[in-house]
Design brief:
Pfam families: LRR_8. This is LRR-7030. It comes from Anopheles gambiae. The protein is mainly β. It has two domains: about 160 residues, Alpha-Beta Horseshoe (Leucine-rich repeat, LRR (right-handed beta-alpha superhelix)), CATH 3.80.10.10; about 100 residues, Ribonuclease Inhibitor (Leucine-rich repeat, LRR (right-handed beta-alpha superhelix)). Helix content is about 0%, strand content about 25%. The chain has a twelve-stranded parallel β-sheet with strand order 2-4-5-7-9-11-13-14-15-17-19-20, with no helix packed on it. A two-stranded parallel ribbon has the order 1-3. Helix 1 links the parallel strand 19 and strand 20. The longest helix is centred in the C-terminal third of the chain and has 4 residues. It starts with a strand and ends with a strand.
Amino acid sequence: MRTLIVHNATSIKELIIAEPTLSRLHFLPNGTLSKLYILRSSLATVPLTLKNLPKLSVLKLSQSPIEQIAFESFCNLSALTSLNLKNNLIASLTFQASSATSQCYASLARVSLSSNKLKHVNMTVFAAMRALEIIDLEYNQIEVVAGRLSNPKITTVILSNNNLFTINMCEWNTMPLIKSFSLAVNSLSQIPQCLGRMRRVQFLNFNHNKLTRITIDSFVMLTELRSLHFTSNAIQTVVPASGVNRIPSSLRDVFLTNNLLTRESVANVFPPAVRIIN
């Protein structure tokens, strides 16, 4: 089957499509369909007629040869809460801002782009998604993260399993609701600057990078931090907090397994209440 037309007479609320030969998908205006799962297809672009599904709240489009996403394609889907674009061939993300797109994504809370071919991501493409809480960019080939992340409701950012050597967060807006930030399995040699943009973060993951030195001053502004993960780096030195700076009292666990440290070398860096896994 190469072409599928979904008629407007149907009362179906959930539709699952898994057809490897499907290359054309057309939706007639439909006010009932709320969940659409395209699990396998030959679609090379996002169907333009998605705009005819005003009640669509969940969209999954995976295992298709899509190489580019223009986020304005989803702008008319005001009920959309979850956009899952995992496991495609996406190498480019764009968003063409205009007066028509200024009110996009009123409900969109989660965007997943994991397991694609992204190498360069400009975080401004997410700027119109004011309700966005979770961005998942895991398992790409990302070398550069540019632009400002300005989404006020962000709680989770996942950048694990990429090719990042550095990341500049100093242009990002303050993220007052963020809880989890993961940069595991990259090639970072230094802790990113401006972590203070995430004052309320609780979970930070730097596992499997190339860190050789940790300075505790990088984390003293994170007043709700509970868990720090540094497993499998090349850390030789942990520099204690300086001057009047103090380790956040909320910190409970620091994971330092598979580094070049001894328990004695970090014993006086953290207070007794902090559990050191080394």
